[in-house]
Amino acid sequence: MNENAMKMAQAMVQLELKDDSPKVPRKTVCGKVQEKLGTFSHPEGNLQTDCPSHDSICSNCGCSNANCQDMRRRTRSLNAPSPIQQFGPCGRIMKNSAMVMTIQDPASQRLTWYKPPLTVLVIKKVRDVSVLQPFVKLVKWLIQEKSMLVYVEQSVMDDTLLATNPSFTVVKDKLMTFRDGKDDLTDKIDFIICLGGDGTLLYASLLFQQSVPPVMAFHLGSLGFLTPFEFENFEDQVTNVLEGHAALTLRSRLRCIIMRKNEETAKDAKPPTNILVLNEVVIDRGPSPYLSNIDLYLDGKLITSVQGDGLIVSTPTGSTAYAVAAGASMIHPSVPAIMVTPICPHSLSFRPIVVPAGVELKISVSPDSRNTAWVSFDGRNRQELLHGDSLRVTTSIYPVPSICAQDQIADWFDSLGECLHWNVRKRQKHLDELSDLTHSSSNDTLDSLEHTDQIDS
């Protein structure tokens, strides 16, 4: 690497991408992600070459000593290693402003509060008696021990079982309430606690269609893939989070916009439907007996026409929901990607695909389709897509900061094992335990076994 290339690499570290695109906000009311930029290096240290013009530079200390310990040590990062940008004696990546960027390592994302959180939203699972007692204990503890202002949904206050609970009546008058769809919680909530299953986290995502406060989810539901915390010692766990001792998983969301044919050109048209989803947006044939015939565009280019029951466009978080039931792969939530999964396609070769998180997908009903299509967002707000309408989908700049019980890797694989029983099967027996193979070993060949049989006969 020559002197000019070294200067450029140092400048890239210090500069940020200068463009007009919106930046991802790192904070809500009180919480933000601790900024600790990961160092990108090759898994075995920087690549070594014998050519003197391609000297290797240590990414940690800046030296060119081949025996440097930092050069041989693998940098622990959830990001892929930064690729070498010079290929052979003459080839290299063309310089442009898009090369200058700063990417934070997901493994280093930890919650920090730049001022103490004062307001907390508690979301509990509805129509579940088993959640009532934990809900009362948590709310009472937050008010009396932590002196926090607690928000709950108005429907919670109308619960007749809670109204007769003596412990709840003590704190009932101290609770703040809101109504979904009527009251705006933006900039009012510092912290969210969910009690129930995955649906409570999806509901929290629905309530905050822009910046989302940090979410701590307790497993009190049926499946609980997204709820890593157990409620038994909730006091210690919540205290640790309020003190800033927690890892974060930034779960990306999809920004979905429905463009109506008759509204694109009308001057007095209503603003288009704009919804953020945490799991997936589903386009299907609805009540029609005919196949869905849907055109799929990627960054303006027609990719394919989907003929089948429908299409699932999901986030990495949603890859373990409807998408995995339709045959998709499971993607770790820290992977920046969008998954496209057909539902019962009328083609055996139509497999699920993963595309970069930055692309824009456009989905519309094919002009020659026999029927319309229906779209739903995280299982809600079901609407009909008519001929000429289109759905635009891309990754939102507003993720859901989900608090980890352990870390991003351990939580995800624990959920795979406990909730989905991933790769669970009985262990294969040892050869010594099989009576019909006691006279053979792994080193036996067919010729030796036949020779043994001839001697025995």
TrEMBL record:
Query: Which parts form a coiled-coil structure per UniProt?
Result: none
Q: Might you give the EC number(s) for this enzyme?
A: 2.7.1.23
Q: Per its UniProt record, what Pfam families does this chain match?
A: NAD_kinase, NAD_kinase_C
KW Zinc (keyword) present: no
Write out the GO MF terms. NAD+ kinase activity
Q: Which top-level enzyme class is recorded in the Swiss-Prot or TrEMBL entry?
A: transferase
Q: InterPro entries given for it?
A: ATP-NAD_kinase_N (IPR017438), ATP-NAD_kinase_PpnK-typ_C (IPR017437), NAD/diacylglycerol_kinase_sf (IPR016064), NADK (IPR002504)
Q: Which UniProt keywords apply?
A: Kinase, NAD, NADP, Transferase
Task: Please list the GO biological process terms of this entry.
Answer: NAD+ metabolic process; NADP+ biosynthetic process
Record carries keyword Transferase:
yes
User: Which HAMAP family does the record match to this protein?
Assistant: NAD_kinase
Record's family?
Belongs to the NAD kinase family.
Q: Specify the protein name.
A: NAD(+) kinase
The protein's gene is named LOC103507804
